[in-house]
Design goal:
Keywords: Iron, Iron-sulfur, Metal-binding. The chain is built from ten helices and twelve strands. The chain is an alpha+beta fold.
Length: about 325
């Protein structure tokens, strides 16, 4: 069902949905940015349309709603353990096409890459997506090149037009809005300012010896911000927290990790792999445009450009792809 309605009618519909769903969308958090006087845009629970920020790209992806940065999995004592409970509320997330496509990648890792991840699945099953149409590309986006600028995987879609909203409702459970019937197509980006070409025949051994990685040894500072803002990065570490009151009682947590930071590849015996920053960036880049594609048949990177937006050293992933492409062509 496709409708046209004003903000007031939309907010009334959101109020009805909030009785059953927790609603998440990007919001502006004043004075929470990189510098003291800058804002941060990230996903938080909202109640009405004016709380949402769609004119700017969110600094963090909505991934953290389904895959918390710090998640308690279980509590334990010396003799037994109990599973951490998850709240029963359903979740509705307002997302761009690239981020919905990114969820498909995360699902691939946690649900179809061997045994299903129980903890991820129980959260994932509660989530529905509202696709937010994109009329224009944001800076550093290259979603068109990655075929992630469109999607049909949504419960509801939203176009924003000045003082009116256009919604396409697929899920009958979300049919709570009053509006005028109107035919329209959901907006999607047709062209980005940035275009990339991924080599079709990548030789990973040859690429590992490319001189571009030496450049990143000097530039990368191993902060891991590119991983933490990426909607398709899925690495984590496990932490056992012991309570001060009783060292035999505690909790096990799953915490986001980064393949770019020191210590990520440490193993028993004091050994470690990929100690240089260039090797770490090579590992990430090849996973995004080669390894994942070889296993699942499509690219991992969705071209959202957040890694470029947030890198303090101005390392551009799209430029990295271009350099890999140039190196591969030179070897032909």
């Amino acid at each position: 069902m496709k409708l046209k309605l004003n903000y007031e009618c939309f907010d009334k519909g959101l109020e009805k949905l909030s009785q059953e769903y927790k609603i998440f969308a990007p919001v502006v958090l004043e004075y929470k940015g990189t510098y003291s006087d800058t804002p941060s845009i990230r996903y938080k629970e909202v109640k009405k349309f004016e709380d949402m920020e769609f004119a700017l790209k969110s600094h963090f992806s909505p991934k953290e709603v389904m895959l918390p940065i710090n998640e308690i999995l279980l509590y334990f004592t010396q003799d037994e353990y109990s599973e951490a409970k998850v709240k029963e509320e359903k979740v509705l997330i307002f997302m761009r096409a690239c981020d919905i496509n990114a969820v498909k990648r995360v699902d691939e890792i946690y649900l179809r890459n061997g045994e299903e991840d129980y903890y991820y699945k129980r959260r994932r099953n509660k989530v529905k997506f509202v696709l937010v149409g994109c009329r224009e590309s944001f800076r550093n986006c290259f979603c068109v090149s990655m075929n992630s600028n469109k999607t049909e995987d949504y419960a509801m879609a939203l176009n924003i037009r000045d003082n009116e909203l256009y919604i396409d409702i697929k899920d009958k459970d979300l049919n709570v809005f009053d509006g005028q019937s109107e035919e329209f197509e959901v907006d999607y980006v047709k062209e980005n300012y940035i275009k990339v070409e991924i080599p079709e025949n990548i030789d990973p051994i040859k690429v590992s010896k490319a001189p571009i990685w030496e450049e990143y040894n000097a530039r990368c500072i191993s902060c891991g911000r590119c991983n933490f803002v990426c909607p398709t990065c899925t690495c984590f570490t496990m932490q056992d927290i012991f309570y001060k009151e009783n060292k035999n009682v505690g909790e096990r947590r799953r915490v986001w990790a980064s393949c770019q930071v020191d210590g990520f590849t440490d193993i028993a015996g004091g050994h470690s792999f990929r100690n240089s920053k260039g090797d770490r960036l090579r590992f990430k880049a090849m996973h995004k445009i080669y390894d994942f594609n070889k296993r699942f048949g499509y690219q991992m990177c969705v071209g959202c450009g957040r890694c470029d937006d947030n890198c303090p050293q101005y390392i551009s992933f799209s430029t990295t792809i271009d350099k890999i492409n140039e190196f591969c062509k030179e070897g032909e």
